[in-house]
Amino acid sequence: MSDTKTMQHDFQQLDAAFQQAFQAQPAQHFAAPGRVNLLGEHTDYNGGFVLPCAIDRHTLAAVQVRRTPLVRVLALDYGQQLDTFRLDEPIESNEAQPWANYVRGVVQVLLARGYVLGGMDIALSGNIPQGAGLSSSASLEVLIAQCFNDLYALGISRTELALIGQQAENEFVGCMCGVMDQLISASGMAGHALMIDCRSLETRPVAIPPTLNILIIDSNKPHAHVDGEYNTRRQQCETAAAHFGMASLRDLDLTQLAGASGLDALSAKRARHVLSENARVLATAEALQRGDSAELSKQMAASHISMRDDFEITVPEIDWLVATVQDYVGERGGARMTGGGFGGCVVALLPDDALVPVQQVIMAGYEAEFGLQATFYVCQASAGVSEV
Ligand code: GLA
User: Fold this and answer.
1) Which CATH code for domain 3-207?
2) Where in the chain do CATH 3.30.70.890 domains reside?
3) Considering only CA atoms, which residue is closest to atom 1 of ligand 1?
4) Cα of 338 to ligand 1 centre, how many Å?
5) Which ligand 1 atom minimizes the distance to the CA of 230?
6) Which of 24, 38, 247, 263 is buried most, with the most CB atoms less than 10 Å from its CB?
C-alpha cells in the first residue's frame, strides 16, 4: 500500500476506536513524522548544527474538543489504554502508563506558558518503530501540541511547538534531550533535509538528490542505560564548555581545545567529537546540495569514527552494519550510526542499484555474527506535522 493509502486505513481504524470510546465522531486528524538524522549527533544540546529529515512514518491523532476541562486519550498501540486528566487540577505523572506522560507533559507546558485551553478527546496510533531511535516520542509531543494549537487557535509557531515538546520531555518525562527531534518533526520539508542551527534555531532546507535513497537499518540491539549514558555525555560536554568559560561548545574551536590544560581527557574527547561533528554537518550539507556522493561517503564515515572513538556511543552490532554498508557501496553512498547511540539504527544514503544488494549482504551475515535480525526501512524525506 502507498503511504497515503496506509494512512487513510489507519485513520479509519482510529475513527472507529474514537467512536467506540467517546461515543462521538472526531472533528479533525493530524499526523506528525518521526525522523532520521543524516549527520550531526549530540551537537544539538551543544548549540551546534544538525542535518535531519522527517520520514514517512507518523504518529496519528483523531481529535475533538470537549466542553469540560478534561483530556481523554486513547492509545490504540497500547492495547487501547485510556488516560484521563483534568486541566483545572495539577497534572501528575502517570506511572502506570508511561506513554501518557508525553501528552500530559505537553499539556502542562502549554498551561505553564499561559495558553488558554479547553478539554479534548484524542485517539492515537502510529507506525514509527518504537525504541529504535526514530523519535516516536518527539513526534507524539509535537502532534499533541499542534492538536491544541489548531483546535484552540493558540497561534503557536512551528519552532515554538518544538520547544514546547522539548520542555515537556526535559521537565515532565525527565530526559535531557536537545531540540533536534521535535524541531524536525514540526518543520520537516518533503524531499529535503533541514540544516538546523540549534543555537539560533534557524533552518535551511537542503534537497536530497533524487539519485540517493534513504535506507534505515534497525540493529534491533536492545538498548541498555541509554538515558543515563546520554545525560553523562551531556554533562561531559558542559564540563568542557565551562572549562573555557563558555555557555556552550559552539564558540570553541579545535585549536583552542588542543591547547587546553587542566581539562580531563574524557571531557576533551567528547568536546572534540562535537566540534568536528559541527564542521562535518556544514560540509555534508554542501555535499548533499552538490549531489557529491564521494564527499558524503567521507563525511559520514568520519562521523561514525568520531562517535565510536571520541564520543563512545556505538556498539559492535552498529559498527558491523556501518562497515558492511560502506564496504559494499564505497564512494557511491554513505553510512553511519544515527540518533542517540547504544544500539538503535544506521542511516545509509544509497544509489538505486545498491538498495537491495546491501540488504542482502546484511541478511547474509548479521544474524550469524550477532544472533539478531536487522529491520530495513526505505524512507522518503517528508513534511512536518500537519492536518490530514
Ligand atoms: C536524541 C536526542 C536528540 C539528540 C540526539 C543525538 O535523539 O533526543 O536531542 O541529542 O539524541 O544527536
Assistant:
1) 3.30.230.10
2) 212-379
3) 340
4) 9
5) 11
6) 38
Q: How far is CA 218 from CA 6, 38, 41, 373, in A?
A: 21, 15, 17, 9
Please identify every stretch of the chain with a pLDDT value under 50, giving residue numbers as ranges: none
Of ligand 1's listed atoms, the one at least distance from the Cα of 42 is: 12
**Euclidean distance between CA atoms 226 and 347, whole angstroms:** 19
Closest ligand 1 atom number to CA of residue 169:
8
Distance CA 309, CA 272 (A): 10
pLDDT number for residue 95: 95
Query: What is the length of the chain?
Result: 388
Ligand 1, residues at Cβ distance < 6 Å: 41-42, 44-45, 177-178, 180-181, 339-340
Provide CATH 3.30.230.10 ranges for the chain: 3-207
Cell (9 digits) for 333: 553512498
Q: Which residue type sits at 299?
A: Q
Q: Which residue numbers are catalytic? A: 181
- Each residue's pLDDT tens digit, 175-223: 899 999 999 999 999 999 999 999 999 999 999 999 999 999 999 998 7
Query: 278 C-alpha vs ligand 1 centroid, how far in Å?
Result: 14
Does the pTM surpass 0.90? The reply is yes
* Distance of CA 5 from the midpoint of ligand 1 (Å): 31
Alpha-carbon gap, residue 355 to 352, rounded angstroms: 6
**Which of these CATH numbers, 3.20.20.150, 3.65.10.10, 3.30.70.890, 1.10.443.10, describes 212-379?**
3.30.70.890
